[in-house]
Amino acid sequence: MGLYLGLALHQITWTIVEEKRSWDATAGALAAGLGLGVSELLAGLVAAFPSLFEALGNWVIDIVPPPVKDLAIELFGTADKLVLLISIALVTLLVGAIVGIAARSRFWLAIFVFVGFGAVASLAAARDPQVSLGIAIIPGGAAALSGLGALQWLYGVGRGKVPTEDSSPSRRAFLMGAGALLGVAALSAGFGRLLLERAKRAVAGREEVVLPTAVQPLPAVGESASFDVDGLAEILVPNEDFYRIDTALSVPRVDLQEWRLTVRGRVNREYTIDFAQLLDMRMVERDITLSCVSNRVGGGLVGNARWLGVPLTEILDRAGPADDAEQVVGRSVDNFTVGFPVDAVYDGREAMVAVGMNGEPLPFEHGFPARLVVAGLYGYVSATKWLSEIELTGWDDFDAYWVPRGWAKEAPIKTQSRIDTPVQADQVPPGELVVAGVAWAPTRGISKVEVQMGEGAPWVEAELSTPLSVNSWVQWKAPWIAEEGRHVITVRATDGNGDLQDETPRPPAPDGATGWHSLPVFVTADV
After folding, report:
1. d(CA 470, CA 472)
2. Are residue 50 and residue 162 in the same domain, yes or no?
3. What Cα–Cα distance (Å) separates residue 89 from each residue in 54, 64, 75, 95, 326?
4. 405 domain-assigned
5. Global pTM?
6. What is the pLDDT of residues 317-329, one digit of tens each?
7. What is the per-residue pLDDT for 433?
């Protein structure tokens, strides 16, 4: 197996550089991969050690310009973080291959690059408030040393010396050594990642959490609140299907026994509570639709869920907001921040510190043990996951994470509607069909949805499901007698205030997309 793996990597590098250098490129790439794999294994084995892989990814996310972030989400959707991690791995291997070629006669260059990589990765990891630089240096140093050791060994194939230009190990010995290192690197990275994710969940203690009952539990979803139409989004989106957009490459490490929520800043009484104390407070249950500001017209970065939590008014009232408190800043355990007006807490909308989602403790990916949920505001200004601190500040005293990166400081969710079925460019048979989708305008509700079955056709008012709340999306459906040919279906919604959804096409930046969702459908008897 080692022989075949080594040969495969050699063939890849051979296509990039001339054959006589492909061995050195293979050695460099394998050495870099081994260094990364060893650092992941250490992070999985020792809870205190950070993942250099994640640290580099988080650093990239922090510095990337907003247009690049928008493009990544548009191209890859919720897989954007996976693509980022794969890209980091590929870039690491490519740099290693280049170093492998250059360092054959100048091994000091390999030392410089590998040590530099370890130092940069350690500094990136130390940006996490939970990780000290001294701790971060350990996996960074291990990555550099293991990579250098592997490179030297491959150059000399176990002869224990830094080789010269004339070193020419046998083809078979090199390939077997390369295959062995490739296997070790892959197993180290994979096993380390598995241990890391398991450790995060084991430490969190989610399985032991028993949620309290809301003071007034909501009734089960009635038949009138949900249509039975194939392809239509469920009125309450299952947790495993709920969209996830955040800056964290993986679930932050949260120890429930050590977790605390602190309320401070421009308040009369700063205080800190643990998870048990939070659960002892008055719990309410609310149906609220959340939406990401990056969601394009007709996109899937929106979802509706039943949340259990403590009203944010009661969290803040316990601290006593000062007269000059104008902004609520939510801070997560990984130091991500959001910011929204204090007035949004007290204007009658639903806002809570949530601990439950659709009848179970918050999933790890959605903020366990606690998160902010604020109706009517895009997530980037309100929905802090893995919440650790609430700070009251002046409006101009602090800009949350995305504001300096070009996004608006105030971001109310815009009225939107979406066609779920049929899907774009679908081929459907002629005859009686149902066009269906969802519409949302949290804090205002939806009063009407209209559908146009073809360009120039009259607008038809759709049937709406019974709203779960003014903050929840509604389903809509409309009958369609489809005739053969190409048809463009368009939908628009009117909110509870009587205001029609904005027709003007605009991209998500800086405060949310606008426009009516349209899609072509092909009606043919050949289906």
Report:
1. 6
2. yes
3. 11, 18, 19, 10, 43
4. no
5. 0.80
6. 999 999 999 999 9
7. 94
